[in-house]
Specification:
By secondary structure, the protein is an alpha/beta fold. The chain has 2 domains: 3-39 and 295-401, Aspartate Aminotransferase, domain 1 (Alpha-Beta Complex), CATH 3.90.1150; 45-289, Aspartate Aminotransferase, domain 2. The chain has helices at residues 3-11, 43-58, 62-65, 71-79, 96-110, 125-137, 148-151, 177-186, 278-289, 296-317, 343-352, 376-391; strands spanning 29-30, 90-92, 116-119, 142-145, 159-165, 190-194, 213-216, 231-234, 322-323, 335-339, 355-356, 358-360, 364-368. Helix 2 runs antiparallel to helix 9, helix 5 (96-110) crosses helix 6 (125-137) and helix 10 (296-317) runs parallel beside helix 12 (376-391). Bound molecules: pyridoxal-5'-phosphate.
Length: 407
């Protein structure tokens, strides 16, 4: 594809107008929306309104007057259609890590005779770390990791919960949610999916797949801003059975009775712990709103097409890169990784030229194609820059070898 053809494809794209909803800096090609989503243009005004007109004017009355107390459930209900859940099955709360802790511990408690939390090596670190924390706290529990290709065969009657990330953070590989969930259930285990790289990027149908539990980030494809609150999902049938180990007052049945003894709220509300972050939830709500009314199957198909174009152009124009993501779009999320021995320096050279992707250790150059605001010409220009960086060996500069705290 030539640059003109890429531009023509953007011009013919019925979803192209969605890009105008985001404040993207001029001259930057942003291919990291899978790490931190872009800023919706409505978010600053919304936050100003919540700060000045609600907090500033009405102070504590805002909890009742402005629906702050219901915000976590309200925004959870707006996320629900993006993941194939019923409105009252999703709650905005805490961080993804904390939600993993809550749901893993709840799942282990619900399966007292089973010792194992089963996951795969190379899952996102926080998933494994939180599982290790839960297992360490609960006598007789352990975390077992089995390579993905043999994971399903490793599910047995000792597994309390299977923990997987639906779209792998590094490779972008998309797992078969229906089949793996069914395999977990066949052995009596619960299934917990991390949707951080899925929600808003690929079709997810938790209800149809019979999923028990899920978590996901608010700051990636949901565009909730840096450190946005996360979400969690608990299937309706399990909500009265499971208990959050973080039995904070906001998950109590009657928090404003101020009783001494904990009694969980009915439904998803019991997975709330402390006071919800109203400013963060307001920003997340603006992010989620950008997808409402959008033809989501078309949006997901566009994400796949952007990834396909990127793979084709890199393989055509740049030597030395090995595709580290599935080639088949049906089994991929909306990001693509290529391995290269100098991936870190290459990534820094690109960032210096305002093509923003990221590096994942040890050798992966990862590019995310958030279909709401990424165009085909962006992909073309990014690969053109990559080809130029490679041709001139521009990456081979000591400045690009210095590791920043966040990669
Ligand atoms: C799969 C996955 N889970 C969890 C997280 C992060 O969790 P937290 O928001 O708690 O830092 C990420 C962040 O990139 C991720 O990719």
């Amino acid at each position: 594809m030539t640059r003109d053809e890429a531009r023509a494809r953007d011009a013919a794209d019925p979803l192209r107008g969605l890009r105008d909803r985001f404040a993207l800096p001029e001259g930057t090609i942003y291919l990291d929306g899978n790490s931190l989503g872009a800023l919706p243009k409505t978010t600053p005004a919304r936050l100003t309104q919540v700060i000045e007109e609600q907090w500033g004017r009405d102070l504590i009355a805002g909890w009742n007057a402005h629906g702050w107390i219901d915000a976590a459930a309200r925004v959870g209900a707006r996320i629900a259609p993006l993941v194939g859940a019923r409105p009252r099955e999703v709650l905005v709360a805490d961080s993804t890590s904390v939600n993993l802790f809550k749901l893993l511990a709840a799942a282990c408690t619900a399966r007292p005779d089973r010792a194992t939390i089963l996951s795969e090596p190379g899952n996102f670190p926080t998933d494994l770390y939180m599982a290790q924390g839960v297992a360490g706290m609960m006598v007789g529990r352990r975390v077992k990791t089995v390579a993905f290709d043999s994971l399903v065969q490793a599910i047995d009657d000792d597994v309390a919960v299977v923990l997987l990330t639906h779209v792998h953070y590094k490779s972008g590989a998309k797992r078969d949610m229906a089949a793996i969930t069914a395999a977990a259930h066949a052995e009596g285990a619960l299934m917990l999916w991390d949707l951080s790289h899925s929600a808003g990027a690929v079709a997810v149908d938790l209800n149809r797949c019979g999923v028990d539990l899920a978590v996901g980030c608010g700051y990636k494809y949901l565009n909730g801003g840096p450190g946005a609150p996360a979400f969690l999902y608990v299937a309706q049938a399990l909500q009265e059975v499971l208990h959050s180990p973080l039995s904070g007052w906001m998950g109590h049945a009657a928090p404003f009775d101020f009783g001494d003894d904990y009694a969980p709220a009915p439904g998803i509300a019991r997975f709330q712990c402390g006071t919800p972050p109203i400013l963060g939830i307001a920003a997340l709500e603006e992010g989620v709103a950008q997808m409402e009314g959008v033809d989501m199957p078309a949006l997901f198909a566009k994400g796949q097409a952007l990834c396909d174009l990127y793979i084709a152009l890199v393989e055509e124009r740049c030597d030395g890169f090995a595709l580290a993501s599935p080639r088949d779009a049906a089994w991929r999320g909306s990001h693509v990784s290529f391995a290269h021995p100098h991936a870190y320096a290459i990534c820094q050279a690109l960032i210096a030229r305002r093509v923003i992707g990221d590096f994942r250790a040890p050798d992966v150059l990862r590019m995310g194609f958030a279909p709401l605001y990424t165009g085909f010409e962006d992909v073309w220009c990014a690969v053109d820059m990559l080809a130029a960086v490679m041709e001139a060996r521009a990456w081979d500069d000591p400045a690009y070898r210095v590791r920043a705290a966040v990669t």
